[in-house]
Amino acid sequence: MNAYAAVDLGASSGRVVVGRLGAGRFDLSTVHRFANEPVRASGTLHWDVLSLWAGVLEGLRVAGPVHSVGIDSWAVDYGLLDSRGALLGNPVHYRDGRTADVWRATAERLGEKRLYATTGLQQLPFNTLYQLAAAAGSPQLAAAAHMLLIPDLIAYWLTGEIGAEETNASTTQLYDVRARGWATDLIADAGLSPDLFPPLRRPGDQIGAVRDVDLPYPTSVVAVGSHDTASAVVGVPADGTDFAYISCGTWSLVGVELDAPVLTEASRLANFTNEGGVDGTIRYLRNVMGLWLLQECLRSWGATDLDALLRAAAAAPAFAAVVDADDPVFLAPGGMAERLAAECRRTGQPAPASRAAVVRCIMDSLALAHRRAVRAAVALSGRDVRVVHLVGGGARNALLCQLTADACGLPVLAGPVEATAVGNVLVQARAAGAVRGDLASLRKLVRETHELRRYEPRVDGGAWDEVDGRVG
Ligand code: LFR
């Protein structure tokens, strides 16, 4: 059986997962997990990219011989290289506030309708376009020869090869979603040098042999869906096309898979995004704030028995207070429980009076946001949806899965938890010729080798309609 290493960098931790495929078997084991702790310096929130690099190397050392390595991470963030390939400063975290005052003016200058028509991307204040706009005029940007998104930067350090994998490039708001290439006119009008943007590569492309790195075996790097959400969507164990997915971790990415982008005015106003998927598909989705709300509360509460807390939240009264989880007020780190309480009070609801009540408020609010996003995806794309696949860490959260089924009025199939690593490994295995076929065939393999949990929607007598009407 061939082994493949999936390097998966998430907003709170990174992992190296070894996947083995052969004769009806698909085993995954996490061989190394390491923290990803952002660091604030001189008022700017950075990723500690060298510590991530060290974690990747350690993981690959203990992974043992692997046929290839695939790398995925969160989207939009980048490192700048000078003309000799040196990293010009630490990559900045997308939750840093430096784009807050810049993004709207940039969008207005370039034209919001034009931006959507070209890139199909949702407006998020941290899109790469706006981060580069915030960096305009800086000596760092002036000295930059290449902009590398995070997985491309790790691939560069492993192989010496410079390139941009297209699923992640599609999240920059500088990529033409229909032409499937860099949006050169937009890049010029944004005042950026076209030379910054490396040649594109597609999932399955060979990037190069690992070299000048101390690994105890030879291997190479293969492009995968390097945007973590693109890999997660490959790992959705759907049968057919009538499904919605929720890739549920720090974010919930909620949407459908399409063959072509939806670029209508209604779609733009609903802030739906058309991100590039593996095999030229479109990930038509919306970002929901996700388990970030819970993670931030847990971070401030210190050591907590999460299972006990979720049980208490399940027993707490439903809908006591529900907020718009997608309110940008929740984007930045810190003071999350206080911000939730303030939002409840502002909307005339009682602030949660216990930790269990806070968690219940988060779960009800996320389920509501899932419902709205699934319904909007259906209405805007015309796709028939009969089941919701919930993958990623959130698939472990039975309360959230059940509430999501209830809120959507659809069955939820939960799992795999490691969908991102699954998708990463499958694209490598296909590039190696060890598995064959289209996404449907890859998904069949996931169904045959992973246990899923099914949650049926409970009849609620209109309760979710009431909640939906309550939250603006
Ligand atoms: C999820 C994710 C989302 C992206 C966000 C920020 O991990 O990649 O898809 O919008 O992180 O990069």
From TrEMBL:
One of its GO terms (molecular function) is kinase activity. It comes from the Bacteria. Residues 244-432 form the Carbohydrate kinase FGGY C-terminal domain. The keyword Transferase applies. Residues 6-235 form the Carbohydrate kinase FGGY N-terminal domain. The keyword Kinase applies. Gene3D superfamilies: 3.30.420.40. Keywords: ATP-binding, Carbohydrate metabolism, Kinase, Nucleotide-binding, Rhamnose metabolism, Transferase, Xylose metabolism. Belongs to the FGGY kinase family. This is Carbohydrate kinase. The lineage of its organism: Bacteria, Bacillati, Actinomycetota, Actinomycetes, Micromonosporales.
